[in-house]
Structure formats: C-alpha cells, structure tokens
Amino acid sequence: MERKVPIGLSNKHIHVSQADLEVLFGKGYQLTPMKDLSQPGQFAAEEKVDVVGPKSTIKGIRILGPVRPQTQLEVSIGDGFCLGIKAPLRNSGDIADTPGVKVVGPVGEVEIPCGAIVAARHIHMSPEEGAAFGLKDKDIVSVQLDGPRGLILNNVLVRVHPEFKLDMHLDVEEGNAAGARNGQMATIL
Amino acid sequence: MERKVPIGLSNKHIHVSQADLEVLFGKGYQLTPMKDLSQPGQFAAEEKVDVVGPKSTIKGIRILGPVRPQTQLEVSIGDGFCLGIKAPLRNSGDIADTPGVKVVGPVGEVEIPCGAIVAARHIHMSPEEGAAFGLKDKDIVSVQLDGPRGLILNNVLVRVHPEFKLDMHLDVEEGNAAGARNGQMATIL
C-alpha cells in the first residue's frame, strides 16, 4: 500500500498561555476562532501580536488556539535570523533553554523568558491511520515529495494520538525548498 | 569513492547588465569587488540596490559581478511572496517569461521587463572533478545532507565547465530546510 499523507505548511505563529493572553489583550480575554486547522479543536485566531527580537520586530504574528500551558513562538530559521535570535529545532512543547522574545499586544506586553523554537517536522495521525500505515507514536520515517524541487525528508517524527488527523507539518522554508503547496500529497517511504 | 561536495548557500542577489548598471549608478560605472565567490572570477560587489515589487520593496539587495548580458534577480520563493511576484524555478540565464521588477540605484532606476527567478539547485564542477565523480554536464543527481533536518535533494543539475570549481548552490530556504551551513559537505548519491 502506498502511504500518502497531505502536507500542511506552517507559517510563523504563536501559541499563548491564558495568563499571557490576558496581559496582551486584557483581563478575562478569550481568543476568537477565525479558521479551523487540520488537527481537531485547533484553530487560527483573529488575534495577532508583534514579536520583538534583539535585531528587529515582526509585526502581526497570528495566535493559534486554544490557549496552552506555555507561550511558544514557532518561526523559521529565516524568521529567527530577522529577529536576531537563534531558535533551535525542537518538538512542540520542548522549550527549555530556548530564546525569549518580547510579545506585544494591544493592551500590554510580555517578555517570555524562553519559548522561541523552529518546529521539527512531524506527521500527525490517529491510531487507526497509524495501524493502517504500520506506524506507531515516535516512529521516525522518511517522506518523499515530488516535483521539480522534489526531495526526501529524513527524520520525520510520527505522532499518533486519538485526537490527531493525518497531516504532515512542515514550516514554510521546508515547503518552499520542495516547491510544495498546502494540501499536496507526499509519500511515506 | 564517496562523492563529497561543499554547500554554498545563496541569499537573494542580483546580476546586472552594464547598461542597467550605468542607469542605476551612473555613466561608465564599474562594480567594486568586495569578496570573491566560490566560482573563479565571480564576486560579491560593494554595490546594492532596492528592488520594488507590486507588494513591497526589498532594500539593499547585493549585486554579484561581473556584469552579465542580462539583468537577473535571484530570490527565494519567500522573497517572491514578500515582493508580490511569482518568480519561477529556472536555471540561471533562462529568464524568458519571468516577472519583471523595478530596480532602484543611487543615480537612477530601471524597470526590467523580466528577470526574476528562483534559481534551480545545481552543482558546479570542473571537467577533472566531473571525471573523478563519473559525472558530465547536464547530469541530474540526488544529494544527501545529514543532520537533524537531514534530507535528500533530487533533481540536482550538474554543471561542468573548465572555469567551474566544485560547489553545490542552494538557496537560503533549501539550506534552512536542511539546517545546513555554508561550506558543510553533502554526498552525491
């Protein structure tokens, strides 16, 4: 069986804690869902913030909801270069010893002591999808993307969870390196 | 024999014709070499220009010398998105039916009717290096880059010429997708 997976490209974005959200947008503030994302319950919010690094500010970075226990900024290596930070390659949630930045909202601002990462590429799938593919949580696979800029990505982490749905998350630089579009199908080798 | 090749990462840059150079910088102007590039005779110039697209301007794009028959802007897909142009994937020199932009220098400005491309990845090598690798001009190879973001690039064009020296040219997005650094070694498979 060919194991096909859709590609989801992630532009720079930020996840925020409820505490930080309230500093940025006001006491008791709730995110406003704008658009559902591929993973059930996850959404792009209407709200955006500015992120200030030592070298520059990137304006209008979108918040993805719902709120999380920790604020986490996900950027490309190129975005990190612009900001003047060296965000390391990490799996989501693993933010110990990562650079901090200043986050500016319409009501207030927060200096996060850490939280800026380059998200490691990964594939979300449900246990049923994992079983059909012969894959389990934390497996590492290689994935082929076709086209004029065709390539094979090694070291792709498989994440299996009942709340996940089949989707491979790449950042914009990975997507552009492959000339890939959102929703294009790739093949797990 | 393992076929190892150093990686050279190209940021956005522009090649200019002598005629356009003189409009941008003044009659009889000559480029000022700042730094030699990997290919013999090629150099990064002191001179920079601003490039104006329909959506935004990118300031301070470096000119690479020497002058060429045609002005050619090389950007990443992300740069093209910023400028608001859809620069296609092309080999250097193949600029028919590509987007134009406005180029602004300290003395004048030029509307180039075409010339904006995303450079297709390629490996420069001398005939001797080609012979040692069992490769000839226009061969297409796959190249492996190791590391946490390790990947295999397919569709890499081999360019063999007496004035070339072994170096694989990737753009910044391809380099970042692999977590690669300038000068890192890759393996032709």
Automatic annotation (TrEMBL), chains A, B:
Pfam families to which the protein is assigned, alphabetical: PTAC
GO molecular function list: acyltransferase activity, transferring groups other than amino-acyl groups; metal ion binding
Cofactors named for this entry: Zn(2+)
Catalytic activity: propanoyl-CoA + phosphate = propanoyl phosphate + CoA
UniProt KW keywords: Acyltransferase, Metal-binding, Transferase, Zinc
UniProt pathway: Polyol metabolism; 1,2-propanediol degradation
GO biological process: 1,2-propanediol catabolic process
EC number: 2.3.1.222
UniProt xrefs under PANTHER family: PHOSPHATE PROPANOYLTRANSFERASE (PTHR39453)
Function comment: Involved in 1,2-propanediol (1,2-PD) degradation by catalyzing the conversion of propanoyl-CoA to propanoyl-phosphate.
Family designation: Belongs to the PduL family.
Protein name from the UniProt record: Phosphate propanoyltransferase
Organism listed in the record: Acetobacterium bakii
